[in-house]
Design goal:
Blueprint: H1 20-44, H2 46-49, H3 52-61, H4 63-77, H5 85-102, H6 107-131, H7 136-155, E1 160-161, H8 168-174, E2 177-178, E3 181-182, H9 183-200, H10 203-213, H11 215-220, H12 225-250, E4 253-254, H13 263-272, H14 284-303, H15 311-339
Helix pairs in contact: 1-14, 1-15, 3-14, 4-9, 4-10, 4-12, 4-13, 4-14, 5-6, 5-7, 5-12, 6-7, 6-12, 9-10, 10-12, 13-14
Length: about 350
Amino acid sequence: MAEAGLPLKPVDNRAAPPSILLRYGSQLGIIGVGVAMWLGFVIAAPRVFTDIDIYRAFAETTPQFGIVALSLTFVVITGEIDLSFPSVMALGVAAFCLVTAYGGAPWYVGLVCALATGAACGLVNGLLVAALNIPSLVITIGTQFLFRGLELVLMGGTGVPLTADQYPQMHALLRESYFGMPVQTLWMVAILIAEWILLNRTQFGAHVFLVGDNQISARLMGVSVARVKIKAFVLVGVTAVFCGLLSSIYGYYFWPSTGEGSLLNTIASVFLGGTSVFGGTGSVVGTFVASFIIGAINAGIVSAGINAFYTQLAFGLVIVISVVLQTLIDRRIRRQSLTGR
């Protein structure tokens, strides 16, 4: 009890503001890994990693899988996965070629048809997963073969040249440099900003986290879980086709095998970036940084004079170390949220 005549001291029940670690722990962890790896490469191969050309190469090639990794982050946060996007990349570019090279339509009509094809593929995946409640791991393996088979049948297993003479507007849009920066990275930064806003500043983004954290609670709060997942899959489909166009225009040719080899790099970027495989947490900024880490590993190993066979070993080490760091950071965050220290 307070002494007679002395006023009671007000009790401050306000919660302490979250610390920087609590708010940005995931992003700080992956940025730390990226800086450490870059310093290691600079020490091992200073002539290569102090030359601007190596960074220009990263800026041109990493977005070819990194852009779809940004969108895949949404799907993984909802607790799902999409393994069909490499085939969607090829099918969308095939639609572009069929409409323009074979159909004679303008390039912009082909572009719209290509992106619409990606959206349709994402819609199919989303409906099968969300409406029929089929595990996404299983169904997207099936649709991966389905979409790839459809592309091979439509194109007859043949490719199409995509030279600058035939498609000058597409090359200006997807291959040229602006302000000394490859347009591929400018696109990736623009999509990063748009998707960061979508994930962190819109109702849809809040619903993505809520669905991934607890679907039952999301339904009780009036959130349409199926609609949220379908939109996330459609987003992956559209950006997968965009990456397919980036890759094909960069190589001046559409190959029927477009997209093959991008699966592991893309998925590794998402999980290396701190997105939880269990859903509920994730960051497009982390995925962005992780994409460039994945893109730099192969070049860094070769430039350092190490046998290229060690590339997969390096991938494994970086991913394992990053996941361990993320786990330790998450534990620290949970402890801080419970104790306030």
